[in-house]
Amino acid sequence: MRIPDWKWILKWKILYPIRHGKLYGSDYEESVRRAITSFSGDVFWDIGANTGYYTLRVAPKFGHVRAFEPNPDAVKIVMVEPFALADTTGTSRLYLFTNVREKTVGSRNSLIADPSTPWNNSQKKEKTTTPSLEVETRTIDSLLESGRVDLMKIDVEGAEFMVLRGAKVALSQGRIQNLVIELHDKARKDELDSILVSSGYTTEWLDYGRAGQLSHVLARHNSLISQRIN
């Protein structure tokens, strides 16, 4: 892991608590943070790591951690694998919404030109004035192969369905035991539920429908639930 630079420490670890009376990130996605930090195991993947907020908190509880973040400017705390996970292996445009929560815990940078608009095709061309850069893309299936992941967090600002399409084999074989996924288009909640349930998962929505909060789902593979019951 990378040691945070002194400017980051000064801004967020020293000045932020003085100005706001609380630690930076202490109230960030509380229900999601509780769910993620309740897990431990061998392997954790953080897809859409941004500054590494969750990677840092979960790393001591797992034997092996992989953090994926294609935007080089977002990486401030941890070492990451600098490519995006999607539904194809190749390259894509990463759209940089730098005017929104720049370099804080959250980020809106996305493979989707407009994350607020439903988009179900990674090859679709969109006209946009948003700054972007070309990034390398991989799929979960190509990286994971015959391996397993105990916990996977997916927060990719609207590209979550692209990521899941690139994990069809891993999902169908139960190689990802637990997932926490941020859903950006609430109209597609049933679609996401259907994908997970048909792949053998039981879903629990952590904050869906609460005003002012993002939507996150916790999915546990049914094989794990059966083991606990037996």
3D structure, described in words:
- The protein is α/β, with parallel strands linked by helices.
- The chain has a single domain (24-229), classed as 3-Layer(aba) Sandwich (Rossmann fold), CATH 3.40.50.150.
- Helices cover 27% and strands 22% of the residues.
- The chain contains eight helices and nine strands.
- The chain has helices at 6-20, 30-37, 53-58, 140-144, 160-165, 168-172, 189-198, 222-229, and strands spanning 41-47, 62-68, 84-85, 90-95, 132-138, 151-154, 178-183, 201-205, 215-221.
- Strands 2-1-6-7-9-8 form a six-stranded mixed sheet, sandwiched between helices. The chain has a three-stranded mixed sheet with strand order 3-5-4.
- Helix 3 (53-58) links the parallel strand 1 (41-47) and strand 2.
- The radius of gyration is 17 Å and the shape is globular.
Short description:
The protein has helices at 6-20, 30-37, 53-58, 140-144, 160-165, 168-172, 189-198, 222-229, and strands at 41-47, 62-68, 84-85, 90-95, 132-138, 151-154, 178-183, 201-205, 215-221.
The SS-based structural class is alpha/beta
- On the 0 to 100 scale, the average pLDDT is 81
Characterize the overall form. Answer: globular
CATH architecture: 3-Layer(aba) Sandwich
Helix and strand element order:
HHEHEEEEHEHHEHEEH
As for the CATH topology, it is Rossmann fold
Q: What is the share of helical residues? A: 25-40%
Summarize the main sheet: 6 strands, mixed
Number of strands: 9
Give the neighbour order of strands across the main sheet: 2-1-6-7-9-8
Share of residues in strands:
15-25%
* Number of alpha- plus pi-helical segments: 8
Assigned CATH superfamily: Vaccinia Virus protein VP39
Overall structural domain count: 1
CATH class: Alpha Beta
Distance between the first and last residues' Cα: 39 Å
Low-confidence stretches: 99-103, 118-126
Rounded radius of gyration (Å):
17 Å
